[in-house]
Design a protein that fits this description.
The chain folds into three domains: 213 residues, Rossmann fold (3-Layer(aba) Sandwich), CATH 3.40.50; 223 residues, Rossmann fold, CATH 3.40.50; 116 residues, ANL, C-terminal domain (GMP Synthetase, Chain A, domain 3). The chain contains 19 helices and 25 strands. One of its GO terms (molecular function) is medium-chain fatty acid-CoA ligase activity.
Amino acid sequence: MTSTDTHLPGAGHGALSDGDGRLVRYPPDRVATYLADGAWRREPLGRSFHNIATRFPDRPAVITAHAAMTYAELDARTDRVAAGLIGLGLEVGDPVIFQLTNRLDTVVAWYGCVKAGLIPVATLAAHRRHEISDISRKIGAVAHIVEAGGSFDLIGFALGHGVGHPTMRHVITVGAPAPEALSITGTGGGAAPAESRLESLGVDVGDSVARQLVEQIERHITPTDVVAFQLSGGTTGTPKVIPRLHGEYWNNALWYAQSLGWTEDTRVAHLIPIIHNAGISCGLHAAHSVGACLVLATADARSAFALMDRSRATDVLIGHGHYQALELPEFDRARVHLRTVVLSGAKVGAELFARADSGDGRRAVQLFGMSEGLFTVTPRDAPARARQTTVGTPIADDDEIRILEPGSETPVPDEQIGELCCRGPYTIRGYFDAADHNAIAFTSEGFYRTGDLAKMTVIDGVRYLSIEGRIKDVINRGGEKVNAGEIELLLVRHPAVATAAVVAMPDVRLGEKACAYLVPTDNERLTLRDIQDHLAGLGVAKYKWPERIEWLSELPQTNVGKVDKKRLRRDIETKVIDENVALTDEDRTS
């Protein structure tokens, strides 16, 4: 190999400028403390994975319904992908949009980008123009990785999105190759575009050369550099951009794995989107941080449980969108091998807890986590009451929690409900390029205001966190967060809608769905299909669409002139309950 560091395109910092003020840095004293006590790693995240792969080369790293890969195979392949991406002219710090589902090539793309010093931007395959456009331009994305096939043409979408984009240069696919785009196989496996670029640098695309190239790139990465951009659920407008750093992101996952007692013999099943922060931190990185195997399933519960059974999965994360699926007979077979069932996203009833827990060694525990940082888990050896009624204790020694009176910085005592605020080694100090919002989202001491209502409760002398609701106006649809205010602004862009209020309505399967209360501009009352077509025309992701509309002559007001959403929530809850009772009575008489 003849190239030197100065010849590498990764020697710069790409589209993300370190000094433009859009990235909120941790205070220097905190950085020094976290590095000194080991809360932060000094090595880049890609090297942390490589070191684990070197320790466990022949153990399975990922199992899916269609493929599997050992640590050695995954490490070598992602080195080649990284080399190919570098060969395309991408630089350290360049953001890359991800729109991928749960498949082996998604894992390959993730580690390949990270090893190349690129920044994966964790959007969803379900996102559309409304969500992608602002984010992509804000962060200066240079590439867009999408999945070939499926019911929606993501390749065509990405190509269209790139027209007129100031920084976008490449569309890359996983799955079947497309003539109009590069593919992950092409960039990492020697296809002509990447190979010719590498040859111009005077290198080959062999495994050893790819490893050397990755190592040269890693010499330019520091613990305070961004490793990935995750997205918030969106409290106002489109989702906010969450910077995660090389120094903290791998440890976030390692602490989670250690809190559950995972080892290289653990097999971790994951059903929800792997590109979510929960997917990365609780699935991919967490499994790999200890040499465990990731059993990468899909959201289809029956096939996921069947894969868990075949793969003898020992641990699984179940989001509340899958709570009802635990009643399926396929779960009976899968749970025979399970050691731990982690429940997350909603209160856990006694019947659900009993279904997940057992007296023969299987434990149900709860997780609370956020893309912005803080994770809490109920320990496996905690009393059953704590495991059923609380979300546990923080996973890191340096995590700090305060329960404050909402809107203030005044702490409340244990057992009293307030706003959950947190600070720590993996909790962000600010959203990317969001100075105005950051001014209200953090306390004067840098604690992140989560918007969740919570309390600290003491059980057998241990303080556990209990989530009691939320301040934010967000609908939790099976784990996907839908910002009510965002959808309201889009609804009133229709000429037939004068005002709108979107609230959560209960749903047995998903927990919550969006219901839109609308006031017409005249006597025309649109159908639900009309409303959904309107949002589709604006490029809004389908999971955000209201699934019920209610027409009113005016929206109810509070005594201070605000829309009375509490009243609307009570109204729709009553209607849904009454309708379900009527259906049940009809079934009994039919």
